Structure formats: C-alpha cells, structure tokens
From TrEMBL:
It comes from Mastigocoleus testarum BC008. One of its GO terms (biological process) is proteolysis. The keyword rRNA processing does not apply. This is D-alanyl-D-alanine carboxypeptidase. One of its GO terms (molecular function) is serine-type carboxypeptidase activity. Pfam families: Peptidase_S13 (PF02113). InterPro entries: Beta-lactam/transpept-like, Peptidase_S13.
Length: 503
C-alpha cells in the first residue's frame, strides 16, 4: 500500500469541504457512458475457458485465486424461486484476505442500519461556571471549517470566556489504533487513529522541498504548529537533476519522532506526504483554541475525559453543534476513494444501534451490528470474519461468495441506488479511475478495489450492453507477482465479462 497522500485527501484538508463527484448508478451507466465497440463477443459457455486462460498462466502457479461470477437476476433472487445462474466459480467458498473490498460490507451495513440521511453530530454543552464540554462522536468529515462554525455559534451565544473546556472523547471506547494493524501503516494517513475526535482526517500534511545539491531537504508542515509536535530526523539529501527520487518515512516506536530518508532532485517539485497525528484529542483542542481566539473568545484551561473515566450523563444544554454530511455522502468518500478512516468511523457508529456490553469495545459492538445487518441483506454469516471495517487488518477473512451475496442483496434493497452511487466507475472515478480505460469495460463496470502486499481484490457489477447485469468477485492472495501484473490479469477477466452476450 502506498504511503503517499492521495490527491483527494490533500484537497479535502486544504479546501476543508466535502467535494464529492457522484458517479452514476448502475441503472444509469449504460445510457450515460460511451459504449466501447468490440468485434469480440463471449457466450456464457465460453467464459470459463476465457477466465482459465488468464489465471492458469505459469506466472500464477503459486497464486491463490477466488472467483465467483453470477447473473444478477433480481427476479430470481428476490422471489427465491431459483438461484442466480453461476457463470464461473473457483474457490468461491474459501476465505481470502480481502483488503479494501471489506468496505463494501461496512457501507452496506451502515445504509441498512442507519439510513442514507443519517448524520454524525459534534456538540458543545454549557455546564455552568464557564465550563463547556465538547463531545466528539467520531465524525470523519469534520474539518477546520466546522470548528470555525462552532466558534461563531459560541460567540453568537454571548460566550467571550471559557474557563474550562472539557474534551469528551468517551463516545468511542477501545484502542484508537486496532492491534491487528501493521506498524508500518500506522504513521500514515491511511492508518490514522480512529477516535471520538477526528479532525482533518487525523492527518497532517508534510512537504519536503529540495535545496541546493548536497543539502538536506527542507520539511514544512501545512499547519506550522505541527512542527512543535514532531521531532524529525532528517537524513535526506538534494541531488543533481535527473537523479531518481525516493523518500521513506518511518515513525520511531518510542514516540513522536519521524525518521525521513531519501532524495529529491534539485529544482524538482516538493514531495507531499500525509502523516497520521499522534494524539487526536490534542490535535482537535489545539485547532479549536486557534479558532476560538479568532472569534475573540479566551480559553483558560482544557481537560480531557477519556474512556477510563466514568462521567455519567452529560450536564447542561447544547449551545453549539455541527453535523456531518449525510451518510449517502460519507459512503461515497469511503468507497470511491477507499478511505480507511471513514470506514472505521462508520463501523463504530453502528455500535449506537445496540448498547455496549460490559468491557466491550465500540468496534466489536459495531461489528456485531454489522453482522446482523448483513444477515438481513442476505449474506451468510459463515462466509466471512471481520476484525475491522476498512480492510487494513490482515485478520479479516472474506469469501468471494460473501461479496456476491452482499452485492445481490443490496441490488434488491431500498438503498440500492445510493449504494451504486458510492462505487468507483471503471476508467472514470476514484481508485478505479485509471483502470480499464479504452476497453469494453470502461464506464459500464462499478466495483470496489482492494490492494495490500500480496493481495489484490475487485468486486462489483457489470452492465454489459449485450447481456443482463452480472455481479462478480475476484480475490487474489499469496502472490509474489507485482500488483501491476495481477491487476492486469483481473482487468482482463472483467473485460471478458463486459463482452458477454446472449447466445
């Protein structure tokens, strides 16, 4: 998995807005997309030999494949008169490490349980005597713009002085970083801590600028105050024009020290990286203090309420609040840009649908609700085992069968269109933007991607112009081949699906 910041995250943090571009729903794809012409058409009976020709190549001798392709066949599925027709199956019932296709399950469960209009609220309560309590509820879309709004609301309420600001982060209980995540992922934005307070996706932008040849690169934080939070061991160098660029960043296991190595050519563009914040509460309070001062509200001391402290019910009345975009927008960011933090916040938000058991973490409670939701959608609970909501954990196990059952169940649900709109379109949007361009599959496939070291997955829908809609899941594990090579093979299979015709 790349350690570099995505362009979308950079735009999110810099613009402080949710600027999603909604893709077309599957029912709209055929009419809106430019159809690719191809002289090659594949009958369903030919599909197994076409797929086998791809996956049985010698370079994949040691690779584990799991594939299931079925007609969507909504009438048969909904009436349960017959099962959807299976066009291809290989290892469909076996468990695979799924990577980010896990988000398909998380977002479907969130829609089923919470509804497309659900919003996550961040509140400030007046407890008297100049004490205000700000309660975070894990809104992953919260940015500085919303903190400006909160500060203005307080000023409008006549607040000019806060004697004590209590940051209450007890909404999510448990570790902010799952123990099953790889240490190498934790320093970066895609492994950011998941807490009741999430601001700017709990990431900070770091730029590295080339200097004169032989000099260290110059680090510069997007928020200058971040420079006081980190110790940087700078082992970089500026090299001659034309020399290869490489940058590696690691976080010291003992604390807030970044070890930076590598090189950039003189006069080249700066390297941009998003670093996960070390302390989400401190990060939130520090930013909020700045916005309070801009509204001429003085702040005395601050304190934090964590999961280790029993606080009872919140006292006082709510005097300021902001809400997230509706869930329909949050899941777009989750799936289209494969945002781990959004997925983890959503699975924890699901825990609100059931009271926490004694000593139960929020994520475990959320996963229980998720399983209930998926069963209602039509997914056999024995076909998957989840440890997180994003797919970053290697303890997750999902079968191709589970993903196909999910996609079929969602297609006949009341929220089908909203879910379809959250998926990347081949050759057009999100993590699927640069794949399958100028092929028969461009614009008519909507699917979720998944990638980790040794893992490549893809699952979604194909709306072939000469065939009925098809649902598919392709999972590759334990491969020594480069990701690029495996993706190319998967894409070749998907192009075959796009060329299906009735025979």
């Amino acid at each position: 998995m790349s350690t570099k910041i995505s362009i979308n995250l950079l735009l999110l943090i810099l613009s402080i807005t949710l600027g999603f571009q909604p893709p077309a729903a599957i029912a709209q794809v055929e009419s809106s997309a430019t159809q690719k012409t191809s002289s090659r058409k594949i009958c369903p009976a030919q599909l197994p030999s076409e797929i086998n020709a791809v996956i049985n190549k010698p370079l994949f001798n040691r690779t584990h494949w799991g594939i299931l392709v079925q007609d969507l066949n909504l009438k048969a599925v909904s009436s349960k008169v017959s099962s959807p027709r299976t066009l291809y199956s290989r290892g469909a019932e076996k468990y695979f490490t799924p990577a980010s296709v896990t988000k398909l399950l998380t977002t479907a469960a969130a829609l089923q349980q919470l509804g497309k209009d659900y919003r996550i609220r961040t509140s400030i309560y007046d407890e008297g005597n100049g004490t205000l309590r700000v309660v975070g509820r894990g809104d992953p879309s919260l940015k500085d713009e919303q903190l400006v709004t909160l500060a203005k609301q307080l000023r409008q309420q006549g607040v000019t002085r806060i004697n004590n600001l209590i940051a209450d982060e007890t909404h999510f209980k448990g570790e902010v970083i799952p123990g099953s995540w790889m240490w190498e992922d934790i320093p970066f934005y895609y492994g950011a801590p998941v807490s009741s307070f999430i601001l700017n996706e709990n990431a900070a932008i770091l730029r590295l600028f080339p200097q004169k040849v032989g000099e260290n690169l110059r680090p510069r934080w997007e928020q200058p105050s971040e420079g006081y939070r980190w110790r940087v061991r700078n082992n970089t160098v500026t090299v001659e024009e034309g020399e290869k660029k490489y940058i590696t960043i690691n976080r010291d296991i003992k604390g807030q020290t970044l070890n930076i190595q590598g090189q950039l050519a003189v006069n080249s563009q700066p390297d941009i990286t998003a670093i996960a914040v070390f302390d989400p509460i401190e990060h939130f309070v520090r930013h909020f203090r700045q916005h309070l001062l801009l509204e001429r509200i003085s702040l005395g001391r601050t304190s934090t309420v964590t999961n280790d402290i029993k606080t009872g019910e919140i006292k006082g009345e709510e005097i300021a609040a902001v809400e997230s975009a509706p869930l329909s927008e949050l899941i777009k960011e989750t799936n289209i840009n494969s945002n781990n933090l959004f997925a983890e916040a959503l699975v924890r938000t699901l825990a609100a649908k059931a009271p926490l058991k004694e000593n139960q973490t929020t994520v475990n409670a959320g996963l229980e609700v998720l399983q209930t939701a998926l069963t209602q959608i039509g997914v056999d609970p024995t076909t998957y085992k989840l440890d997180d909501g994003s797919g970053l954990s290697r303890k997750n196990l999902i079968s191709p069968q589970a993903l196909v059952q999910l996609l079929q169940g969602v297609a006949r649900s009341p929220f089908a269109k909203v879910y379809f709109n959250s998926l990347p379109i081949a050759g057009k949007t999100g993590t699927f933007k640069y794949r399958l361009r100028d092929t028969a599959a461009e614009g008519i496939v909507i699917a979720k991607t998944g990638t980790m070291t040794g893992v490549v997955s893809l699952a979604g829908y194909v709306n072939a112009p000469n065939y009925e809609p098809v649902v598919f899941s392709i999972m590759v594990n334990q491969t020594e081949q480069p990701i690029r090579v495996v993706r190319q093979a998967i894409d070749e299979i998907v192009v075959n699906l796009a060329q299906l015709r009735r025979c």
